[in-house]
Design goal:
Helices cover 79% and strands 0% of the residues. It contains eleven helices and no strands. The protein is globular.
């Protein structure tokens, strides 16, 4: 039981940090247990995956709760008045629009992604490839727009980036931030829209998986693991969100690019040598 709680806490922290930093949470959740030999146990079951998503949702709602109140109010008024005059109303509906590509991709390809592409070699390759894309985009981007300047096609483009992050090692935040930068957003604006965009798709994942978990129920030990994973993911996620937004006000993405390339190359090497499967 104690070892399971350690695993739950460790992977909760890994999820919370890597979900919001542009380094790939799915990739780390594949590689870290493999490196540590955690191939069995409760942490690899469906209910723990739900716990991690609950933690992620807690983080993005908690870090932006004032924004969510403003966005919900503006969206309601836009429906009542049939007007998109408020910038916050437009942003709320752009978040909804940007969620569509990932929702469709998840419905159509989730099983294939989890069975065919869930390997360390894919993770390492995508870590390097997306890292290099981030480097190029961050260097060439204009950095002159904020999230309230986005248009529908911009939101769809960023949403497609989020959909591509189904491939392990891509990084949802990395793909969406890179797309936002390519569209001329400032680094903080690209990160903010990326984080806000993550909430609806995460909520959908929690709702869908919770139905499956409810059918089977949770034992007392599983409930303990669920709670530890959700809390550690939520707390570390809020810290990661606030830390990245503060960091991007004055610095670029190169530290994350370097990390991705080095980590990806090591993963590819370990996978090629048979030390990581």
């Amino acid at each position: 039981m104690a070892s399971d709680l350690v695993q739950a806490a460790t992977l909760g922290v890994v999820q919370g940090i890597t979900e919001f930093l542009p380094v790939s949470s799915t990739g780390h959740l594949i590689v870290v247990p493999a490196l540590l030999g955690w191939r069995d146990g409760v942490v690899n079951e469906l209910n723990f995956d739900v716990a991690l998503h609950v933690g992620t949702l807690i983080a993005v709602v908690g870090a932006f709760w004032r924004d969510w109140v403003d966005l919900a109010g503006a969206a309601w008024r836009s429906l009542r008045d049939r007007s998109l005059a408020e910038p916050e109303a437009r942003l709320a509906w752009l978040i909804a629009l940007g969620t569509v590509p990932a929702a469709l991709a998840g419905a159509l390809f989730q099983r294939q992604v989890e069975s065919v592409l869930r390997s360390p070699l894919v993770v390492g390759t995508m870590m390097v490839a997306v890292g290099l894309i981030l480097a190029v985009v961050d260097r060439l981007a204009r950095h002159e727009r904020d999230e309230l300047d986005l248009r529908p096609l911009d939101a769809l483009a960023i949403g497609i980036g989020q959909a591509l992050a189904l491939i392990p090692g891509t990084s949802r935040s990395g793909a969406t931030i890179a797309t936002g930068l390519a569209l001329g957003l400032t680094r903080p604006a690209a990160a903010r829209f990326s984080f806000l965009l993550s909430a609806p798709i995460t909520f959908g994942a929690v709702a869908k998986q919770s139905v499956d978990v409810a059918r089977h129920g949770l034992s007392s030990s599983e409930m303990a693991m669920f709670g530890v994973g959700a809390v550690t993911a939520g707390v570390s996620g809020i810290i990661a969100i606030r830390g990245l937004l503060h960091f991007l006000r004055s610095r670029g993405l190169m530290p994350f690019v370097i990390y991705r390339v080095i980590a990806g190359a090591l993963i590819i090497g370990l996978a090629a040598s048979g030390r990581l499967e």
